[in-house]
């Protein structure tokens, strides 16, 4: 995640960034390379048609503990940023001790914030997968290159297959299936092309009690696809290691909260 103390405008500007496509966000047009504060919670930057936002509020994570078994964020009057409280929510009941508040995924690889000569290297976390099932795209913005210029990177992602009826695999007396077992290796498909290798991939399950199941630990690996015309292309793809089911699902009416809480924090490689 970008350091909240260093706004996106810190990135060294370059002709390529300024000459990129503009962004339309919230009914306002922004030039490529332009930074703006979308709300009291987020500082954003337009980069060649894509908007990346940095949370200005603390995004620390608090897991259940004996002295605070039901941690949750609440909006307090007169304050922009939500704060943690420990009172038990009236509309939630515990389903086993594993019930947790939203947990950020562990990150793997080098620290995304490094200092090089004349360049503060920063990299945003991977965005949420663009699809809740099937093949989607996840993106991030970084200046970790020889020219210290902002660039957008992407990787393929699949949270779960669309054709799988996961609810029928939930065991009797349970309300979630966190990481359903896939009976056989699968081949991924992308625009008519098929992965050269088969993969015993993991996917996130579902709940019947209103909880969301999202990736908890991920990594990024290259996958080769072979097309009908014989062309072979290599794409980076997210692979899920573990998933977590939680009640802190974002509200669809808060686009910024949704962008943050649905992010998938894979390795930084």
Q: What structural class results from the helix and strand content?
A: mainly beta
Helix content: under 10%
- What about the largest sheet? 4 strands, antiparallel
Q: How many helices?
A: 2
Order of helices and strands: HEEEEEEEEEEEEEEEEEH
The low-confidence runs, each spanning 5 or more residues with pLDDT under 50, are 1-15, 91-113, 252-266
Numbering strands along the chain, what is their spatial order in the largest sheet? Answer: 13-14-16-17
End-to-end distance: 14 Å
* Radius of gyration (Å): 20 Å
The number of distinct β-strands equals 17
Strand content: 25-35%
Shape estimate: flat
- How much is the average pLDDT? 74
The total tally of domains equals 2
Summary, kept brief:
With 269 residues, the protein is mostly beta strands.
Describe this structure in words.
The chain is flat and about 50 Å long. The chain has two domains: 1-57, no CATH class; 102-261, no CATH class. Mean pLDDT is 74; it is low at 1-15, 91-113 and 252-266. It has 269 residues and is mainly β. It has two helices and 17 strands. A hairpin with a 2-residue loop joins β4 and β5. The chain has a four-stranded antiparallel beta sheet with strand order 13-14-16-17, with no helix packed on it. A three-stranded antiparallel beta sheet has the order 3-4-5, with no helix packed on it. The protein is 4% helix and 32% strand. The chain starts with 14 loop residues before the first helix and ends in an 8-residue tail after the last helix.
């Amino acid at each position: 995640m970008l350091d909240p103390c260093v706004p996106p405008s810190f990135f060294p500007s370059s002709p390529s960034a300024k000459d990129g496509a503009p962004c339309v966000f919230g009914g306002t047009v922004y030039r490529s390379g332009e930074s703006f504060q979308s709300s009291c919670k987020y500082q954003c930057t337009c980069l060649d048609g894509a908007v990346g936002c940095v949370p200005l509020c603390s995004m620390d994570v608090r897991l259940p503990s004996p002295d605070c078994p039901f941690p949750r964020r609440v909006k307090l009057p007169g304050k922009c940023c939500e704060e943690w409280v420990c009172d038990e929510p009236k509309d939630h009941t515990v389903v086993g001790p594993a019930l947790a508040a939203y947990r950020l995924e562990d990150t793997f690889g080098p620290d995304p914030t490094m200092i090089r000569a004349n360049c503060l290297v920063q990299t945003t976390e991977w965005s949420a997968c663009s699809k809740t099932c099937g093949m989607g795209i996840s993106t991030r913005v970084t200046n970790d290159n020889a020219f210290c210029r902002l660039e957008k990177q992407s990787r393929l992602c699949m949270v779960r297959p669309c054709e799988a009826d996961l609810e029928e695999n939930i065991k009797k007396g349970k309300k979630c299936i966190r990481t359903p077992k896939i009976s056989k290796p699968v081949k991924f498909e992308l625009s008519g092309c098929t992965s050269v290798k088969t993969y015993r991939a993991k996917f996130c399950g579902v709940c019947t009690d209103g909880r969301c199941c999202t990736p908890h630990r991920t990594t990024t690996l290259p996958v080769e696809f072979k097309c009908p015309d014989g062309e072979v292309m290599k794409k980076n793809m997210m692979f899920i290691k573990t998933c977590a089911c939680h009640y802190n699902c974002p509200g669809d009416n808060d686009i910024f909260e949704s962008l943050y809480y649905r992010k998938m924090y894979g390795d930084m490689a």
